[in-house]
TrEMBL record:
InterPro entries: ABATE, ABATE_dom_sf, Znf_CGNR. PANTHER family: BLL6575 PROTEIN. Gene3D superfamilies: Jann2411-like domain. This is CGNR zinc finger domain-containing protein. It comes from the Bacteria. It holds the Pfam family zf-CGNR. Residues 142-179 form the Zinc finger CGNR domain.
Length: 192
């Protein structure tokens, strides 16, 4: 095993993106075990991924809890929600190498064979806490588009993001433009 490859597949940034992908697939539809396994594979988890409906149900409940961190209105609220999850759902910080099969790394789940939901919630909480600590802002947000419910990660600086993707921002701008064109203000010009 190449440790550099392992760390690139399991870095905090990659884990944060995995968290977003799993929260979105688990909370915006009725994804089953294969859809969840596909996301896990995409983010470096190795087969066999023996997920069943009960595992997905537990992960869906964890995703709903994590979604509340993304829905926080400010850094203090996000930190409070993360602190609650860390205290309620995570074990003590520990180092593991999964019996020598991986490089040493941190875990917050209770043991190496923890259920999928516990692993997902603990690893996601740890990563989101690191992002909040590093950036001193909420780790992400919920898309402002009325037709989208996805969560997203925030950047390190600049104007806070409002949409999960450019297509959502464009869709909202087009809708606002069309609404303004249908309802011109009193002087006959459209209000943009």
């Amino acid at each position: 095993m190449d440790p550099d490859d392992w760390f690139s597949r399991h870095s905090p940034a990659r884990t944060a993106h995995r968290t977003v992908a799993l929260v979105n697939v688990l909370t915006t539809g009725e994804a089953g075990p294969e859809a969840v396994a596909a996301v896990l594979r995409e983010y470096g988890e190795a087969d066999p991924l023996d997920l069943d409906a009960a595992d997905v149900a537990g992960m869906r409940a964890a995703a709903r809890r994590l979604r509340e961190v993304f829905a926080a209105g400010n850094v203090d609220e996000a930190a409070g929600r993360l602190n609650h999850l860390l205290a309620d759902a995570c074990g003590p910080v520990r180092l593991t190498s999964h019996g020598g099969h991986t490089p040493w790394h941190l875990h917050l789940d209770r043991h190496d064979e923890a259920p999928w939901a516990e692993w997902f919630l603990a690893s996601s909480c740890m990563t989101l806490a690191v992002l909040l600590w590093d950036r001193q802002r909420p780790p992400g947000g919920v898309c402002a588009s009325t037709s989208c419910a996805n969560v997203f990660l925030t950047g390190t600086s600049g104007t806070p993001r409002r949409y999960c993707a450019p297509r959502c921002a464009t869709r909202e701008r087009v809708a606002a433009h069309r609404k303004a064109a249908r309802n011109p203000d009193a002087d006959g010009t459209a209000a943009f």
